[in-house]
């Protein structure tokens, strides 16, 4: 009887141990599966972030490097900026003529004085109507540029003048287009609609000729 009892006890112990080992094996397999799923999830996140970063970089690369495209904060600021822009082109063009530029640079300088003087004349009554005082001189940045140009002569001056006109007209065209979309003022919308094509024609002209100098 004792032998039978001991045999039954031993068999029961072996069966219990086997079941326990099987449960542990199942838990290990399930644990590895969960861990693997978590690892894959974590690994996939940098890929998504990388795509987002690439898209952001692509958007930044598409931005115009030559100037701001955002409108001014309000209409008075835009009008003052437009008047400064006219004075920048007029006075730098006069400086170039005084220092004896020739050829295309001379021709373009004379046209800048004529067209930007006309632009200011058309903006003045709009500004007066809205009690905005327009500046009558270059901005600080262009005063510094004028001082640099004073030191140049001949082909160097002509090249510098044409490059500056290209840069300035790109900025002005960008800002005018953006402000036209923002402003609710009919007078300013009319002014921009009339002036922007002239600015764009200047820009095209300077781009075409500055590259050949």
From TrEMBL:
Keywords: Signal. It holds the Pfam family DUF4142. Residues 53-67 have a biased composition (Low complexity). Residues 1-25 form the signal peptide. Residues 53-73 are annotated as: Disordered. It comes from the Bacteria. Residues 74-208 form the DUF4142 domain. Gene3D superfamilies: 1.20.1260.10. The keyword Signal applies. The keyword Signal applies. This is Putative membrane protein. It comes from Hymenobacter psychrotolerans DSM 18569. The lineage of its organism: Bacteria, Pseudomonadati, Bacteroidota, Cytophagia, Cytophagales.
